[in-house]
């Protein structure tokens, strides 16, 4: 009814989260949950928020972004235009991290960042680019470890215990709803970031998404995965070489 398909998500996690919502609403059965979400779209939105993991932070795993600066940015400088896809962008922290990195490397003006997620709710939060002030100490540390070349506080303004990132960082960002399970490729990209998303899929769905990314990457395009993810054992393992196997940076070679 709503167009979501969780059949190939990791079953133990999905089962646990469904029962969490059943108990939170004091429904007592899966049938009662089904009836509720079929007749109330807002309840479906709440269920969706329980099923989708939105854990992220700016410059998460800063060593990856440092490796990206050293190994990928020099290649991107040779391109007339750059297209980057952040698949499963959540609330946008990683997208802003990339925008700042490209800005500091003088590449932002010739880049277009596509930020997609299954949830329109989290995309709306990403479009706002507003985060709690209490997170900035950790984000600043990550920024410096990731090779940041300026003052991190220059990129935002503080208002009532919140930070509002400057809007120019979103000038070249396109936010759109996209479901990795059901939707197809929509462009050709030089870089695809999909970090800590595949770990929630079973092997069948992982292979499907790897095929989607392979078809969406340009020749010599870069794929960045999460720390617990790998291109190994996928059907496209031989189609990539590792730029940095520890940081899960891969280059499409055929």
TrEMBL record:
Pfam families: CheR (PF01739), CheR_N (PF03705). Residues 1-231 form the CheR-type methyltransferase domain. Signal peptide: none annotated. InterPro entries: Bact_Chemotaxis_MeTrfase, CheR_C, CheR_MeTrfase, CheR_N, SAM-dependent_MTases_sf. GO terms for molecular function: S-adenosylmethionine-dependent methyltransferase activity. SMART domains: MeTrc (SM00138). Gene3D superfamilies: Vaccinia Virus protein VP39 (3.40.50.150). This is Protein-glutamate O-methyltransferase CheR.
